[in-house]
């Protein structure tokens, strides 16, 4: 089970976007990277193609390491722990002890 999942609200804790919050658009467990909506924006030079005949400069979100974000539960950034509940492993917010899912 993962600590951060797609569609979670997270807060960035390091880097140029420190303090920003956003929704996780994707998570790659092999590289342990997350893409957060509206954060870590980079400019990409795109060649003209069939899909975009004009080409040009596009701004898009780049991946962050998962260790640089914290899960937001009830408006508060918290660490994530795990515990067994009714024989199932569930995510738990460390600060409040609340079951996340």
TrEMBL record:
<dbReference type="GO" id="GO:0019843">
    <property type="term" value="F:rRNA binding"/>
</dbReference>
<keyword id="KW-0694">RNA-binding</keyword>
<dbReference type="InterPro" id="IPR005824">
    <property type="entry name" value="KOW"/>
</dbReference>
<comment type="similarity">
    <text>Belongs to the universal ribosomal protein uL24 family.</text>
</comment>
<dbReference type="InterPro" id="IPR057264">
    <property type="entry name" value="Ribosomal_uL24_C"/>
</dbReference>
<dbReference type="InterPro" id="IPR014722">
    <property type="entry name" value="Rib_uL2_dom2"/>
</dbReference>
<dbReference type="GO" id="GO:0006412">
    <property type="term" value="P:translation"/>
</dbReference>
<protein>
    <recommendedName>
        <fullName>Large ribosomal subunit protein uL24</fullName>
    </recommendedName>
</protein>
<comment type="function">
    <text>One of two assembly initiator proteins, it binds directly to the 5'-end of the 23S rRNA, where it nucleates assembly of the 50S subunit.</text>
</comment>
<dbReference type="InterPro" id="IPR041988">
    <property type="entry name" value="Ribosomal_uL24_KOW"/>
</dbReference>
<comment type="subunit">
    <text>Part of the 50S ribosomal subunit.</text>
</comment>
<dbReference type="InterPro" id="IPR003256">
    <property type="entry name" value="Ribosomal_uL24"/>
</dbReference>
<keyword id="KW-0687">Ribonucleoprotein</keyword>
<dbReference type="GO" id="GO:0003735">
    <property type="term" value="F:structural constituent of ribosome"/>
</dbReference>
<dbReference type="GO" id="GO:1990904">
    <property type="term" value="C:ribonucleoprotein complex"/>
</dbReference>
<keyword id="KW-0689">Ribosomal protein</keyword>
<keyword id="KW-0699">rRNA-binding</keyword>
<comment type="function">
    <text>One of the proteins that surrounds the polypeptide exit tunnel on the outside of the subunit.</text>
</comment>
<dbReference type="GO" id="GO:0005840">
    <property type="term" value="C:ribosome"/>
</dbReference>
<dbReference type="Pfam" id="PF00467">
    <property type="entry name" value="KOW"/>
</dbReference>
<feature type="domain" description="KOW">
    <location>
        <begin position="3"/>
        <end position="30"/>
    </location>
</feature>
<dbReference type="InterPro" id="IPR008991">
    <property type="entry name" value="Translation_prot_SH3-like_sf"/>
</dbReference>
<dbReference type="Pfam" id="PF17136">
    <property type="entry name" value="ribosomal_L24"/>
</dbReference>
């Amino acid at each position: 089970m993962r600590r951060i999942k797609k569609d979670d609200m997270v807060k960035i804790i390091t880097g140029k976007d420190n303090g920003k919050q956003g929704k996780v658009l994707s998570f790659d467990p092999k590289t342990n990277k997350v893409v957060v909506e509206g954060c870590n924006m980079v400019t990409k030079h795109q060649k003209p193609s069939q899909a975009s005949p004009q080409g040009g400069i596009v701004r898009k979100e780049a991946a962050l390491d998962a260790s640089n974000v914290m899960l937001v539960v009830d408006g508060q950034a918290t660490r994530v722990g795990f515990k067994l509940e009714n024989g199932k492993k569930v995510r738990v917010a460390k600060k409040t002890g609340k079951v996340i899912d």
